[in-house]
């Protein structure tokens, strides 16, 4: 029986101990989990200026700012041109082109340039321009392209032989293509 009494007393003491916290437990619960939380950050400035675990005891250098990424400029827009004819005279090929943006007609030969585009090739039915490693080809007859239906002016008659066309100027060749000059065989 004595044994029961001792066990009952121990059990009762355990219940009392868990039911009512002691004074030391109240102080431990009131203290913050981080003992440095009560120290103001201004008091720690010396630790920032001379870090304890740095070999030089100097603050780390700020990280260099990354260089801004350079983006490639957008590619040049395709020239607003329309190939209307190709003339081959005395080993020269001349492309006759409508500059749709300016409303003019120009002639281009090999290695000429227009709006930053260099003439790379001219053949019987196409013109190829190149710029910055990019090429654009203009075909003489493109399906789906609208035709200019405006009436051509009355053509002048030229009574020169075809052999004299080898020395014709670009302006004369343009007028021939536009229909302003008609060639008549002798």
Descriptive report:
There is one protein chain. With 186 residues, the protein is of the alpha+beta class. Among the domains are: 78-142, SH3 type barrels, CATH 2.30.30; 152-186, no CATH class. Helices cover 22% and strands 27% of the residues. The protein is built from 4 helices and 9 strands. The chain is rod-shaped. The protein starts with a helix and ends with a strand. Mean pLDDT is 74; it is low at 149-159.
Which key phrases capture this entry?
4 helices; alpha+beta; rod-shaped; SH3 type barrels; 186 residues; 3-stranded antiparallel β-sheet; 27% strand; 9 strands; single chain
Q: What's this model, at a glance?
A:
22% of the residues lie in helices and 27% in strands.
Distance between the termini: 150 Å
Q: How many helical elements?
A: 4
The total strand number stands at 9
What string gives the helices and strands in order?
A: HHHEEEEEEEEHE
Report Rg.
46 Å
Largest sheet: 4 strands, antiparallel
Helix content: 10-25%
CATH class term of the domain at 78-142: Mainly Beta
Overall, the morphology is rod-shaped
Query: CATH fold name of the domain at 78-142, please?
Result: SH3 type barrels
Low-pLDDT runs: 149-159
Beta-strand fraction estimate: 25-35%
Which second-level CATH architecture of the domain at 78-142 applies? Roll
Instruction: Report the oligomer.
Output: single chain
The overall pLDDT, averaged over residues, is 74
Structural class: alpha+beta
